[in-house]
What we know:
CATH topology of the largest domain: Rossmann fold
Number of strands: 9
Number of helices: 6
CATH superfamily of the largest domain: Formyl transferase, N-terminal domain
Strand content: 25-35%
Oligomer: single chain
Number of domains: 2
CATH class of the largest domain: Alpha Beta
Distance between the termini: 19 Å
Order of helices and strands: EHEHEHEHEHEEHEE
CATH architecture of the largest domain: 3-Layer(aba) Sandwich
Bound molecules: 5-O-phosphono-beta-D-ribofuranosylamine
Structural class: alpha/beta
Amino acid sequence: MVNLAILISGKGSNMGAILDAITSKQILEVDKVLVISNKKESIGLQVAKDRYRISTESITKDKKLSTNDFDKKIIHILKSYDIHPSNGLICLAGFMQILGSYIVDMYKHVILNIHPSLLPSFKGLHAQKQAVDAGVKISGCTVHFVENAVDTGPIILQKCVPVFDTDTEYTLSQRILIEEHKIYKEAINLFINKKLKIESNRVIIK
Length: 206
Ligand code: GRF
């Protein structure tokens, strides 16, 4: 059993896919679920409350707050919901606030992220636009363990998505998102079922 925290900032479609998978028992062995947003007004936060009726928290990082202190605030919330490194899983799902080394080290290899490109290509913001602009023929999405640099860490799953000549950032994003929803729940199941073994920078699926 794991206690799951999903961290969001926006519309939360990945969050919704994960929560649907839990509801429909495609993901088992999840005990408590918490959604944290760094934006009080995020649509995803409202959806988590209204549609899924699960616990939510919001925490904003104002400029005066150091990354370390922001991390500590998140850890405080996680612990208050019994989400610890030993029994927890933290899924970043469009969480637009960079976590610091304090929380990343404490919850080492317990934090997953989804990114809309085939990492290590096109890290950071607007990954789909970067792919369109670069003229690549294939892009996709990646679920990886979070380490101490943006969009880095051992890769768990990737899915390819073709880039068409007519694609815009929007159309490519939409097609990638469909695959994101599939591989995120697959990666979560692998994590929960202890099928992931990290060897150096490589994730071996047992
Ligand atoms: C997704 O494309 C995810 O890969 C990226 O941010 C987007 C979040 O979308 N990190 P949503 O809020 O899950 O719909």
